[in-house]
Amino acid sequence: MSVLVVALVFLPVATALATWFAPARLSQNLSIVVGVASFAMALALLPRASHSTVTAGGLLRIDALSMVFLLAVTFLYATTAVFAKGYLAPGATANERLYGRRFYAGLNLFCWSLIMVPLVNGLALMWVAVEITTVISALLVAIDDTDGASEAAWKYVLLASLGLGIALFATIMMYYAGTAVFGASYSLSFSTLLSGAVHFHPDIVRFSFVLAVLGYGTKMGLFPVHTWLPDAHSEAPTPVSALLSGALLAVSFYAILRFFQIAVRTLGPTFPRDVLLVFGVATLLLAALYLLSQRDMKRLLAYSSVEHMGILAIGMSFGASIAVVGVLLQVLAHAAAKGTAFYGVGSVVRKFGTKDMSKIRGGVSALPWSGPMLVLAVLALSAMPPFGIFRSEFYIVEGGLSELHDVIVAIFVMLVIISFFGLSWFTTETMLSEAPVTVSPQVSGAVVVTRGEVSYWIVAAMAIGLVALVILGVHPPSSLMHLLDRAAAELGSVR
Amino acid sequence: MSSLPTTYDGVAAGLSLLVLLTEFAMLRAPLLRSQVRLYAFQSLVVTGLALYVAASKHVDELYVLAALSLLLKVVVVPSLILRLLRDADTDLAGSSVVGTASAILIALVVAAFGFFAVGSLHVNSSSLPTSSLAIACAIVLVAFVLIILRSDVVSQAIGFFSLENGVSVASLVVASGLPLIVDIAFLFDLLVAVVVFGVIMRVHHARNATLSTSDFDRLKG
């Protein structure tokens, strides 16, 4: 089993190196093969992780909680590689070829760093892994070399680095809290910390937890430190946007959960839950309002990510086991839904040559496959049945009601409905509207395009995402539900 | 609270205070070049603190850390940024939103807040200089003030690096036993971050022929 863990670490790095030297077409196919292989390896590790902890060499460790995030990341690795093949044609000129090499090396390296976050053992190494995701993704945001991209990359790298500076402070304070139990020198591994957490100094753990939520919350997109997020998501190449939204935000949430796990042991559940509740409600409120006023397709999806991160934080604050299971299911379903939605937007942007929603009309008739699938993905994001997010948000609401958080549940449902308005306005306006048939585009302002798909690789990536969403919504496999139950138990919620 | 402060406490707090004062000096430095030199000096003080903790607590690993931090933070990072500045041909830091005097006043208030907030944690440990921890918190907050008030990419990057110095001070005084591998990983990460900051700063300068952030207003809403 530990062979698989080590393979998960080395395969993506080797691929990143290989794609730097290999011809474009080979890079595309190699990334798909390695992405799919990573997901397969994660699936192979699933049964073990839902019963016990898999370790390799002390530095790598997989338990049920990290398994959930590993599944989300590797799933997006596989589908994004498929999507990228359709999105990025092999370059003809030397400049385009250089772009392709940079893009594929960066993409694989980014996926590697995202895989490392849930794999490494201990708060310190986790911080290092999250920092590596920042530096690689900042370069990927800047890769298009436009004014917007360089602005977005600067805001992103500065804000995320500052957030991680705070997170480093949190890590050091947690280490300090542990010195009372373990002496001056010990390792920050999860099992060590959890074993002694009951005896940590509560004030220091409280301080450390708030710093961690603020620090990692910057990368997760929690209000008020989310401001880099819409810029980076909208200016990055679309495959990178999908990974940022579905995987990067998720692994930052994972980092917060690791601190949560320790804080609950030291402080009891009330304080950590209250902190997440405050950040969660503020985040969801902001996202719901901003969703109503977006003109740029990718910014709209970015704010939808902020919305879902708020939902995750609120779900954790409910504390009931069913709500925590819902939160973890939402991590998986959001990865699939947001990935699929970004792939669809990538198709639309390639087709219409703009992200501006006022210029896009009749998307469904222009794109016979990816158009309707984008509509479905947006419905999935708005928590419509039969997709996975419906089930996960249902669990979260159920958990909230069972713990008698009636008022918060009511606010939650209201804000989710407002978000639904924002998202569905976008869909009807751009996708389900009448295509402009007039030959003079100046009249309507909309771009006129011919009917036909951009690439069937994009369609394939979207189809995989939708199938996964339906499986998660209609009948999640029992092994997966078992994993989620165990992960919820690891987080301190026992059914 | 009965134990008197020891020499160790005093020297550690003194060096931390010197780091904080350098942070204030950065806030008033109008030239980008002097800002980078102040950062190098600040890093030198942090290195000195590492050496002092290593010697008085007999943590041999910290000597390695001190050597690495000397090489990286005092030599490599400042010279990388100075090279960027030579190419960019810009001397003055982006004018701040408020004047120097007001900036210092704001920083004073913020630093005092950080100092007393940590003080109110009531960490009474006889083996650890808690005043240094409070000063470290003040350093981090003043670094934030620097980043918020300055409007050029170099000052903002330096602000981030000096924030990292503040966290280093905290880690030296409260977590000197942190495994060496972790410390090295932190430093390596800083180096990677510097390179990425440098790349993005160069891209920005190449596109806009300025280091100012004043035209960063295209993306909003």
Task: Walk me through this protein's architecture.
The complex is a heterodimer of chains A (495) and B (221). Chain A contains 20 helices and 2 strands. By secondary structure, chain A is mostly helical. Chain A has a domain at 270-495. In chain A, strands 1-2 form a two-stranded antiparallel ribbon. In chain A, a hairpin with a 3-residue loop joins strand 1 (54-56) and strand 2. Chain B is mainly α and 221 residues long. Chain B has one domain. Chain B starts with 6 loop residues before the first helix and ends in a 13-residue tail after the last helix.
Low-confidence stretches of chain A: none
Q: Order of SSEs of chain A, N→C?
A: HHEEHHHHHHHHHHHHHHHHHH
Distance between the termini of chain B: 51 Å
User: Quick check: average pLDDT of chain B?
Assistant: 84
Q: Tell me about the biggest sheet of chain A?
A: 2 strands, antiparallel
The largest chain-to-chain contact, stated as pair and per-chain residue counts, equals: A-B, 51 and 45 residues
